[in-house]
Specification:
GO terms for molecular function: glycine oxidase activity. It is built from ten helices and 16 strands. By secondary structure, the chain is α/β, with parallel strands linked by helices.
Length: about 375
């Protein structure tokens, strides 16, 4: 029997497992598909909320700590697995920001480099980006990671660790319960027991917890993205305009995202989103009109009230915990949010005050209609 059983093999579940395994714990992951293949794969990989000054302080705390982890985590995984998560710190250009003063005030308060720049600065940094308006914002410290490869590297590392068991293709049917205590799970491959169970099911977390009569206000929010295979160097850094972004990869792949759609668990793509995303891409980088779209896909984000995740022990039950509801910032917040939970699981002093993230009865009773 493992010390810990983790339901969900996304970035949140895998980073939780890695931290527990590093601490010498016996860990089992249960994943219905292949680890790292849902929203962890489908996102863009920007290591920051898109407009960080617009988020509540608890999210800013998590994102600031996580941002500093990715360079060393990526190097570690490359050395251990030979898979490069491709962390790049090339900065971010914000175009058409209508609350620039708020952004600059936020940056001053945190001591974070963010400056107003002109159109000439933008042209020098990104010659193929359409001319900015009178000014733009420039954040030189922002990084990005190639999230599918991050998932592959985490999976490979966990599979190589002797105190970790990765069970893929295991669908969880329910929880093993006794006297308000969760002792494990039932799956399509049989029962699995553990001292503590951690639910990291992303957009599916609320469905998983229904059998415990826990009403977690987390729901799927579809996001469609496209990618162009462009010449390497056409765009060098992340460019954000009017809530959408272009993210470059080292091989010239350019990701453009994303839509926000309330469509339940539907992950189909459609021509309307494709046209809209193409229009966004070509308005930012006109040269993309000469290239065809190479890929078009969709993923499901775990939406939650105000985008604040649920991290901690579930009320009225013993032995079961949750880490879910990160909305658009699962990868952004993963290192810190998993550290906050692992600190609690192991009885350590918490890195960040866990109070705002606790799945208290009041938070669980939030009306889904208000999300």
């Amino acid at each position: 029997m493992s010390n810990f059983l983790i339901i969900g093999g996304g970035v949140i579940g895998m980073m939780t497992a890695l931290q527990l395994a590093d601490a010498g714990q016996q860990v089992t992951i249960v994943e219905r598909g292949i680890c790292g293949q849902e929203s962890s794969w489908a996102g863009g990989g920007i290591v920051s909320p898109l407009y960080p000054w617009r988020y509540a302080p608890p999210i800013s705390q998590l994102s600031r700590w996580s941002e500093g982890v990715y360079p060393t985590l990526s190097l570690r995984l490359l050395e251990e697995t030979g898979i490069d998560p491709e962390y790049r710190q090339k900065g971010l250009l914000y175009l058409n920001v209508d609350d620039a003063q708020a952004a600059l005030g936020w940056a001053r308060n945190l001591g974070k480099p963010l400056e107003r720049v002109g159109a000439e600065f933008v042209r020098k940094k990104e010659p193929h980006v359409a001319a900015a308006q009178e000014s733009a914002l420039w954040m030189p410290t922002l990084g990005s990671v190639r999230n599918p490869r991050l998932g592959q590297a985490l999976r490979a590392r966990l599979q190589a660790m002797p105190n970790v068991v990765v069970n893929e293709g295991f669908v969880v049917n329910g929880f093993i319960q006794r006297d308000r205590q969760v002792l494990g799970v039932t799956t399509t491959q049989g029962e699995l027991r553990a001292e503590k169970v951690i639910v990291c099911g992303g957009a599916w977390t609320a469905t998983l917890l229904d059998s415990l009569n826990i009403r977690l206000p987390v729901r799927p929010v579809k996001g469609q993205m496209i990618a162009y295979q462009a010449p390497p160097g056409l765009v060098q850094r992340v460019v954000l305009k009017d809530g959408r972004y272009i993210i470059p990869r080292s091989d010239g792949l350019l990701l453009i995202g994303s839509t926000l759609e309330e469509a339940g668990f539907d992950k189909t793509t459609d021509s309307e989103a494709l046209a809209s995303l193409k229009q966004t891409a070509e308005s930012i980088v006109p040269a993309l009109s000469k290239h065809s779209v190479a890929y078009h896909w969709a993923g499901l984000r775990p939406g939650s009230p105000d985008g604040i995740p649920f991290i901690g022990a579930l009320p009225e039950w013993s032995g079961v915990y949750v880490n879910a509801g990160h909305y658009r910032n699962g990868l952004v917040l993963a290192p810190a949010s998993t550290h906050v939970l692992v600190d609690q699981l192991l009885g350590r002093e918490t890195l960040i005050d866990p109070t705002p993230f606790q799945p208290t009865a009041d938070r669980l009773m939030t009306d889904l209609a208000s999300l």
